[in-house]
Fold this protein.
Amino acid sequence: RHFSCPGTVAANFGSEEQPLGGAQTGSEDKIPKKRFSEVQKERREQAQRTVLIHCPNNINEKKFLKYLSQHGPINKHFFYESFGFYAVVEFCQKDSVNSLQSEALTPNMSTESAIPFKSRFLNLKLKNLSNKIPEQLCAQTSNQSPPSSKKLFELLNYAESIDDQLHTLLKTFQLTEENVRLRHLTCSLIEDIAAAYFPGCVIRPFGSSVNTFGKLGCDLDMFLDLDEIRKPDVHKNAGNFLMEFQVKNVPSERIATQKILSVIGECLDNFGPGCVGVQKILNARCPLVRFSHQASGFQCDLTTNNSIALKSSELLYIYGSLDSRVRALVFSVRCWARAHSLTSSIPGAWITNFSLTVMVIFFLQRRSPPILPTLDSLKSLADAEDRCILDGNNCTFIRDLCKIKPSGNTETLELLLKEFFEYFGNFAFNKNSINIRQGREQNKPDSSPLHIQNPFETSLNISKNVSQSQLQKFVDLARDSAWILEQEDKGQPSPSSKQPWGLAALLLPPGAAYPSLSKKKKKLMSEKVKGLLASIKSSSTDISKDTYGK
Ligand code: CTP
Ligand code: MG
């Protein structure tokens, strides 16, 4: 009777439950999908009713919930471990949070001194420590990290087909319902800190936390949105008068961004409960504050004045939601790239996950019939209310997923993965740029090894950082992987064999799946040279294409 939210008795909920309105795999294709803005709004509202509690790890779940529900009914809760034992508790009403906060004390330290800051990140202490409770009453934890590679290989080897392997990989790596909640809660907690300076500001998650391509363990990109402050609360027609705030002015938008982030960085460092390792990276093209939120385990990147990145997250959300094959393919390509150190958590000359995602989208636009529409066609479907111009860039596209016609293409994931590797193993990177706006190659406007046009700031290259040698490594691995998948077709290692097969073989270091690869590769290379000579003889226009393995 303490938990009166209908149908949501405070019990642990399985990670099977899917994120709100998020695009999932398989049959849910038919379920109407929510707009990005709707999902974000619901998640934000949910997070505002939620608290994060550090608990003793032998806590009695039932008693804990009974104690908390004195403040009001609980909608959902779960426990997890990350340098300690934590509970995420979502109340049905926001008032319950205030009630709980009003009961909490600021700790009295004997040797150190506490900076009093009343947040929604709390610490629960047991008054009587000696009461050991039976194990079955202890709270179960939900896992927030990806599986070990051993576990992954086991799962992949048990799968029935390569298509099944891609789905398995997606299921094991995608963000769980709990992880999504924890991400929104973390933003909401940071928003409370930022709001101490900028009342009415909003911290929005963007990037892979919300674009449907997030893998467990990915960073948490946050955007401090001050536009909400700029908008007036009420519109009144006051005749000849117009009231404005007195503000301080600085010479440029960039300086304003740097000043704001600098002060928020100081706040996080000095008062932010659980925020550690705060670094201000203010001279980057897009200035940011990086920190780790210890309790959630997230590495956070906070930016501001970056609304185009939020818009590109929305675009990716649409692409990820349109067809269930998109996410399965992107996850596999991302895992493949990570397994071969093509991507890294350290910034450098590597390809990024964002670039890989755009490459997959481009590839799917190139299929016949196309699996994904071009950005220009999404723009042509847009209504007047979808119109969006940011910093002079036209970011308009249709936001209602139901108005986009599904693809008639029925190709299997196995085929698409193989074709992806073949396509990019033979792509004319030396002269062509990847462009998802038009869905076709364009001439490269500059000499960067890999050119992928930023979909909204079209003069920018999202993979400007990639070196020639990293690109070459990508191409070589793509060719090897296409070859491995081709061998599968010829009935080589199969689901019944003990050897890693299919996707599992692709995730192993080169040569490990097929020790004879290098010998076969030599033969292949000579075929390639022959092909090259033939194409020169026939004065083909593009000698870098279609010479591999054909
Ligand atoms: N972004 C961009 N241009 C870039 C890099 C990033 O517009 N050159 C935007 C994209 O919207 C991207 C977001 O910033 O999704 C976050 O960047 P990042 O964290 O690098 O990529 P994610 O997509 O979040 O992928 P990951 O899981 O690797 O964090
Ligand atoms: Mg990210």
